[in-house]
Each structure stands twice: as C-alpha cells, then as structure tokens.
C-alpha cells in the first residue's frame, strides 16, 4: 500500500485538531486531518454548542422576568420543541459538510476513518468502506482525539443504559424525569437546562457542586436549582442502579430510592486513547498523554498531544489555545526557525497552569479565571481574598431587579497582582475577559485603579473590589 505523505498528521478533527492543522498550513506545511466521526468534533455536535443552545432560551426568559415592565410582557412558557429545533440548527442536524468544506478550502486534507499508529510517524486509517489508507508524517503527528464520559463503577449502572453528556445534548424529546449523577459543570448545566424544560430533575453528588471552584459558586448554584424545582442531594453517593422497562431506580448511600425515566452520568472524563495504537510507539493505551509546554509528548521529538487528551485543561478554548501554539511550533521546528518556548512565549501554553478561564452556564452563571483562594494557598502564595456583593453595584440593579451575585478577587500580597477572580450572577460571563487579562498580564493593583469601569455597568464591581482591598 503506497503511503500518502504530509508534513503533519492530526488524529481527531474537532476544533482543537482543526486549529493545529490550520495553523501549520498557514505557516507553509502540508497537513491531514483524520476523523472517524464528524469533522468539528465533540464541541460542535455534542458539547459546547448544543448545550449552550439548550441553556440560552431559558436564560433569556429569566432575564425578561427579572425586569419590571418586561416581566408583564411575558405571557407564555418556554417552547421546548422550538428550543430543540434551534439546537438542531447549531449542529446542522449532525451533518459536517460545511466543516469539511472549510477544512479542504483551508488546504487541509480530510481523511475519513479510524486512525491508528502502525510505526513512528505512521498512521494507518481504516476507512468506512472497509479499506485502508497509509499516512506518513515528515515532521509530526498530533493526537487530538479528545475524551469520553467516565462511567463509574456503580452496581448496575452500565446495564441501566445511562445517558452520557452526548445523549443529554442531542435528545429529540425531553424525559418527564431525569436523575443526574455528578456535581460538576456538565451535571449542573444539564440540571439547569432540563429543569427549565419542565423535567423533574434530581441531582446526586458525592460532594458539593462545582468542587474545584470557590465554595460560594456551588452553594449559589445549588440554591438556584432548588428554586427551579430540582431536587439536589449533596454529600450523597449512588450505590446501585436498576432499569425496569421505561424507568430507572437509583439507591443512595443514605438509603433513599429515586426513580426516573432516564439517568445521566456526569462524573468526569477519560482519554480517548485506548484504540489508536499507542503501544506501537511505546505508550500505554488508555492513558492521558503528558506533554511539555510546547505540547510535545514527553520522550518524543515528533509526537504532540493537544486538547483534552493531555489532561492540562479540559476546555475547548484552552485546547484551541494549545493548538495555536502547537501548530506554530511544529512549523518552526520543521523549517528550522527559532522556537519561542520561554514563559509566555509564542510556542508555549503557559496559561494552562494558573490562568485558565471558564464559564459554567448555570443559573446563575459562574465565571472564573486563575487560582481560587484554596488553590493559591496550596501553591504557596501569600494571598488575600476580597469579596463583594455584585447586587450592590448600580449597573447590576439596573440590569435585573433584585440582582443576586458575588465576586471574589484573589490577590498575591507580595506582588500585589490578581491571581484569580470568580463571579457568580446573571450574565457575569461578560466580566471574565477583563479578569483574564488582569491575571495573564499580571497587572499591578495600582495600575488597575486606572482601568475605569463604565457607569452604570456590572463591570463597576471591579472598582468596588479594589476599594474593598484598599489603595496600595
């Protein structure tokens, strides 16, 4: 079988893989994307886009109801069928023709099928028609295969045919009742969405909600879910699951029995590396791929890993950030150009360590970047946390009647810079980029005093946080 040669081969054509290939091609390399499902990947069809399309209509409806004058104009309930139809428009009904056209128009070859390593810099693709295509990379192969939902070892759970995040975001009809196992982003977002559809939601978490964030974030989200009619069980384990016909029964460690039409498992992710031939190149199938900051897999000079699969930051925007660095550095190394691999250099993903932004699109929203108070303390920083109730800000009171929200700024007391920020409240996602710039640029507090927030906007919370901290 004659091999097709490219400078770069990318396994996985999600947004991360697409960006690696595109960046390398823009810099003069040839590249091939290998994909066995849909070009555009998890984010486009089963995660970021469809989930936010499910959440946004109820968010808009709540926003109208929180403003007197607009509230009186709302006379109907959420049209769930219309919400699902709008979701389908974002996924193009799970058709990737437009994504393929984009890739090919950008000069990237698209190879359909399941790719596996068969030698160093060599990938054999099993095509849908039963054939094989042999690909060889002149310079690099990038693994961008993403991750799969983790199904925990709970008695009877696998046999109960549980939903994963894919089922929740692509459902054609909404169940009358839904039990959710988990307390992280997927669990809380899907609890928010399905509660808004009128589904009877029960969320069961072994700990609190949003455990990696500031404690008040999970507390406020739990309160809002309960206000929306969801049952939220915290510090509660699930010990047994049984399906009988059209219903599923869950037993908790507290002895409670919960019956629902469907059960959604949202307890974490596992790397999609089990069946890509890693053993052929000396790695363990099913493992996360550890990389240096240029995204090169440790121990290799030709193998890279970007996105979820390297376990640095399981977020699409961070994966795309890694992809830009990886595509650039692969091209630089291939062409013998200098590599900028110092902290915050062109060819590194420095922000993965302590400057990762994230939005959880619950009600209320949670927007965070950088280190929490607990994480900063554990990292050895001498820190101070400053909190402020966002509802006290004039712009927030105009934005929504009875606005409820909390902001926290975590300050490095030695350098007087912001290490992290968390905002919880309606539409706080729009505050996040300013916080991200402050954290990434390590803007001194005395300079932040000169970043004047427009009045009356919710951004005025920045001034209030600085005033609460006190002028350096």
From TrEMBL:
Signal peptide span: none
Pfam families found in the cross-reference section: Pyr_redox_2, Pyr_redox_dim
InterPro entries the record matches: Class-I_Pyr_Nuc-Dis_Oxidored, FAD/NAD-bd_sf, FAD/NAD-binding_dom, FAD/NAD-linked_Rdtase_dimer_sf, Pyr_nuc-diS_OxRdtase, Pyr_nucl-diS_OxRdtase_dimer
Keyword check for Oxidoreductase: yes
Catalytic class of the enzyme: oxidoreductase
GO MF annotations in UniProt: oxidoreductase activity
Transmembrane segments: none
Enzyme Commission number(s) from the entry: 1.-.-.-
UniProt cofactor(s): FAD
Residue stretches making up the FAD/NAD(P)-binding domain: 6-317
Family from the record: Belongs to the class-I pyridine nucleotide-disulfide oxidoreductase family.
PANTHER family found in the cross-reference section: DIHYDROLIPOYL DEHYDROGENASE, MITOCHONDRIAL, DISULFIDE OXIDOREDUCTASE
Name listed for the protein in its UniProt record: NAD(P)/FAD-dependent oxidoreductase
